[in-house]
Amino acid sequence: MPQEGIIALMPEVYVYTLASVFIVSMVSLIGLFTLSLKEDVLRKYIFLLVSLAIGALLGDAFIHLIPESFESLDATLVGLLIIVGILAFFILEKFLHWHHSHGLEDEGCADQYREHEEAQGEGGGIRPLGHLVIVSDGVHNFLDGVIIAASYFVSAEVGIATTAAVMLHEIPQEIGDFGVLLHAGFTRMRALFVNFLSALSAVLGALAVLFLNETLETAILWLVPLAAGGFIYIASSDLIPELHKTEHAGESLLQLAAIAIGVVAMALLVLAEV
Predict the structure, then answer these.
(1) How many angstroms separate the CA atoms of 25 and 19, rounded?
(2) What local confidence, expressed as pLDDT, does residue 117 receive?
């Protein structure tokens, strides 16, 4: 988007961005809802949320973010930035040792950590996994805020689409995080509280972009394909493998339908841009 367009949209960008990141942060309180659900019920239907998140993330990346990037940047540069985005999220996940899934409370993860956690948590208190989840989610949510703010500088429609994609992938993630925090030794109310504080880092990420936009206008354009690469990585590396755990044909068809709904929802938002 031209500089004069960005400047003209500044008031709207502030309002839309701050409202969006606040709404996304409130998703962390989804744990209040999960408190009323039995574990078997939650496990039975959460795959639909994961599937919706996959469709929304891939749809936002390929229908909104990447096409918008082609309008402002060289095609080769866009391709390189998408790859950098994918690798950046891979490195971040490696660095923070994200052994919990973005969609489900991973029992394999718990088994992998159990001996180490029990050795350090025999006397009570919080197990190391709990702190790992808080730190990793804080960084991830900060990046979500950066991505949302950068998207609104492209257009309101792209910002709304990106916010919707982030929310759909945050819902199953927050449910999983809540379960991991409980497993790590947090009480239910404390788990909700620290999860919400971690989610508020999205606001900090958005504010960083909003207040530095005049010096980061070129960087903002670069952030869009980087975000697309991150969305592709999350969908393909973290979420899609979770769906392979379902082997029943009926549930697999529901997964495909939910993914398609997520993609179609992102495609319909294009109509608002016309």
Answers:
(1) 10
(2) 41
